[in-house]
Amino acid sequence: MVCPSTSRLPSPYRFVLPAALASLFSLGVQGAFAADAPAAAPPPAVTVAKPAFKEVTEWDEYTGRFVAQQRVDVRARVSGYLQEVVLSEGHMVEEGQVLFRIDPEPFEAEVARAEAKVARASTTLKVAELEFERGERLASSKAMSRETMEERRANRDAAKADVEAARAELRLARLNLDYTEVRAPISGLASDVRVDRGNLISGGSADSTVLTTILKLDPIELEIEASESEFLRYSRLETAGTRQSSRNIANPVEAMLIDEDEWAHKGQMTFVDNEIDVNTATMRGRATFANPGHVLLPGMFARVRLLGAGAHEAILVPEEAIVADQARKLLMVVGKDNIIEARPVVLGPMIDGLRLIREGLAPEESIVVNGVQRAHPGKPVTPQEASAPR
Q1: Please, what are the averages of pLDDT over each run of 10 residues along the chain (390 residues)?
Q2: Which of 45, 81, 158, 363 has a CA positioned 20 to 30 A from the CA of residue 357?
Q3: Which of 368, 361, 317 is nearest to 340 (CA)?
Q4: Which CATH superfamily does the domain covering 104-179 fall into?
């Protein structure tokens, strides 16, 4: 196509035509590029759902260690040579059962000496009483002075005291003889024997020789420690009337051993300490468990859950919907125009596979439950509705 020469056009159109042609060419080029440019990508698709909202009973989880309800270091009450070991190591013993015997001969001799002393004191008393009775008859006929009569009365009373002292020594000697048989102070599981037969052992003091140790295993206790903030939360719940203190009622406790996958052991709180430990900032408590089969042993660790609050309506979300941002926990909440908001929340325990949300989320709000990595705060998403978590 040959463009006509602009020199032949009238002067008013001589400059207008080139400008029009340039404009048409520019529009044609822009249209060609516009046709080739890709369309803008839609917002990323994510799965959203409303949280579960139902009545729950809240439990708080801790780690605890079992301890014996009673622990006794068996010691002799008298010193002497260990003559016989009756105890079967590592077996159950009953209260009052003989465990050890100390050589009784020195104590038998002491009993015999004390018996002779009682006999001598009794004879002396009898003589003193006869002298006193004779004195009374003489005094009635004015044949004995008052001073002599009082002296005989005093001799009689002193002889009575000597008899009582001798009898007390005899009781002590017999008691020490009985103590040569070392008996179990409680029923429980005995440890090993710490002293071999034939050794000289000391007894009757805090530094006496430890012969063995007995632990009472049924029932058994579990010690747990709650942080200061957790203890304050329990105090607030008691003030609000939602949960009573474990000092006042036996709140239920459940335990799970390291090889178990269910809360098989049921107990109850029986003790809460009276002060916060200044070194650990924790409050110590104990729960008591029945242990008829002696499966639970002192020193064992266990996961523990303690009744945290009474029955109440709670918000629950899937664990995978929670995002960690350093110390904060976030949920991606779908707001107006499907814009994502990173919402800080306060977490509670796991209940039926879902995480309890204490603060930060309302039941009617929608959260991202799948595709969290594609949801960015302040950016839109394409929500795909899913049913509430069960």
Answers
A1: 48 49 50 55 88 86 94 96 95 96 96 96 92 80 77 90 96 96 95 94 92 95 93 88 86 93 93 93 95 93 88 88 88 91 89 87 90 89 78
A2: 45
A3: 368
A4: Helix hairpin bin (1.10.287.470)
